[in-house]
Write a structure and sequence with these properties.
Number of helices: 4
Keywords: Membrane, Transmembrane, Transmembrane helix
Number of strands: 6
Organism: Lacticaseibacillus zeae DSM 20178 = KCTC 3804
Strand content: 5-15%
Radius of gyration: 68 Å
Biased composition (Polar residues): 192-212
Order of helices and strands: HHHEEEEEHE
Strand order of the largest sheet: 5-2-3-6
Structural class: alpha+beta
Oligomer: single chain
Distance between the termini: 166 Å
Biased composition (Low complexity): 116-138, 152-167, 175-191
Region (Disordered): 107-138, 152-212
Largest sheet: 4 strands, mixed
């Protein structure tokens, strides 16, 4: 039992010293701190467990007793120092936890601000979309009004065009009637008088009357005219190019 107790005490001592050194050197790593703290506490527990197992009978040499007493005193001093360090560590842990709480509060505050900004931006976007839809509806109504006005203008233009076409048709009828009257008068004025010193049927060629602007071809019924007004052509095309028309009979 004394050997096992000494082994536990030695392991506890090594764990205590190792955990203490690691805790002092590595302060900025929470996971490492926890591991080192576990090693430290385990070493202390091993020392407490191994201390009763150490042989303290009177048959043990005085040197072994003094060594055990010294180790126990060292253990007590180590325990005191570790308790003090534990208190310091607990205080640091409490400080860190308070800092973490403050950081969480700040993070919550920032998240609330971000949510508020997001909601305000959504409201702005919704207002912009509603304004765009309103403008689109206004443009659509304006286009409808413009289309109706254009349709009305086109209908009025069509009516005006119809009226103008009707007026032009009436004017065309009037001008046609006037032309017919003028042509009848001209025909009456240019009708052959059947008087003169020559007969067109006896000439054997195309004969035109410079006075009436009428030409006769061989084979038509001839009439008498003054030889001074006679104009002779080789072809009908020549007579028509000169402004003459063919006799009706």
């Amino acid at each position: 039992m004394s050997i096992l107790g000494n082994l536990f005490v030695m392991l506890g001592l090594i764990g205590t010293v190792w955990g203490t050194i690691r805790l002092v050197r590595q302060r900025k790593h929470p996971l490492t701190k926890r591991f080192n703290l576990i090693i430290l506490i385990g070493g202390i527990v091993l020392m407490f467990v191994g201390s009763p197992m150490v042989d303290t009978k009177p048959s043990t040499a005085s040197s072994a007793q003094t060594t055990t007493k010294k180790l126990t005193a060292k253990q007590k001093s180590l325990l005191k120092s570790e308790k003090a360090r534990g208190k310091v560590l607990l205080a640091a842990k409490a400080k860190k936890s308070s800092e973490l709480k403050a950081l969480k509060k700040e993070q919550t505050k920032l998240e609330d601000q971000l949510d508020a900004r997001a909601s305000s931006s959504r409201a702005v976007e919704e207002s912009a979309s509603s304004a765009a839809s309103e403008s689109a509806s206004r443009e659509a109504s304006a286009s409808k009004v413009a289309a109706s006005s254009a349709q009305a203008a086109s209908s009025s233009q069509a009516a005006a065009a119809a009226a103008a076409a009707k007026q032009q048709a009436e004017e065309a009828k009037k001008s046609a009637a006037q032309q017919q009257q003028q042509q009848a008068a001209t025909t009456q004025q240019q009708a052959p008088t059947n008087q003169g010193d020559m007969n067109t049927g006896d000439q054997g060629t195309i004969v035109g009357n410079s006075r009436s602007k009428i030409y006769h071809v061989p084979g038509q019924a001839g009439y008498r005219m003054n030889s001074a007004n006679a104009v002779y052509f080789n072809t009908e095309a020549e007579a028509q190019a000169a402004g003459y028309r063919k006799a009706l009979r």
